[in-house]
Amino acid sequence: MSMRIVPAASHSSTYSHGAPTTSAPSAPGVYDTLRQGLGPASTQIPATTQHGEAIEPPSSRHPLEARLKSWEATQESARMEMLRKTFGMAEPIRRGMELKTVREGSWRPAALGLHGSASASVHEDILRGRDAFLDWEDVFTGQEQRAAVGVHDEMERKLKM
After folding, report:
1. Composition of the chain by helix, strand, coil, percent to 5
2. Cα separation of 69 and 144, whole Å?
3. Which family would the database say this protein is a member of (predicted)?
4. pTM of structure
């Protein structure tokens, strides 16, 4: 474990805007999003944090974006290292066990967050100290067009009524 404050540089020192096979036929050199998807990063292998969470690859090749994606994992690692040095091994282990328990909870109400996302749980946000922050992913979850699930519908589905 290290006391790194800023994530390590994981980008290459050179930049190319894309291979000729991914460019649009009418505009060579311009990446064709309709045919190839959302950027060349979709072919990369996703990285994981020390807790096993998947870090989604950045959608562009800018060097700063890769660092911003791993910023939270680096900060969490530094926090756990400081706790280990201050209180001993028990504190980071206890916090890790609490986070694992919250993530593997059997049932979470849809009103508290969606089941599939990484920051889906209010409980997890509280344990990680992120309950006072409002991020882009908290507002725009990708589920804006879905109909809201009522409490009664959710309880009926949970109790198999």
Report:
1. 45, 5, 50
2. 23
3. Belongs to the POMP/UMP1 family.
4. 0.53
